[in-house]
Amino acid sequence: MAASSKVCFVLSLILALSFSSIKVSNAARYLLQTTPGIPTMPSLPKLPPLPTMPSFPTATLPPMPATPLPTLPTNLPSLPKPTFPPLPSTQLPTLPTIPSIPSIPTTIPTLPFPSPPPSS
After folding, report:
1. Out of 27, 68, 69, 90, which residue is the most buried by the measure of CB atoms under 10 Å away?
2. Is Signal included in the keywords of this UniProt record (predicted)?
3. With contact defined as beta carbons under 8 Å apart, do 18 and 24 qualify?
């Protein structure tokens, strides 16, 4: 995160320095003084009005015939229950044992320090 903000800061400095030169400032002033104002938009030609929608006659549909729905039978025969053959008994392979993880020492060993030089 800090590296990206440094890169952004450096790029903004380079951009500011490049626009601060005298030639760029003079060119920008020249362009601002020589360009005319915003051109006016040309007017669109007048379009003819849209035609009116014709009115269509409404159709009269005959009524739907009332037919009685068929009745469902009430005494359905019972279906036989399916029988499946027994599953063969298979021996599952034994799972490998996971080796134990060695314990991590929690104490820091002391390091021997050299003796200071004799003072003279």
Report:
1. 27
2. yes
3. yes
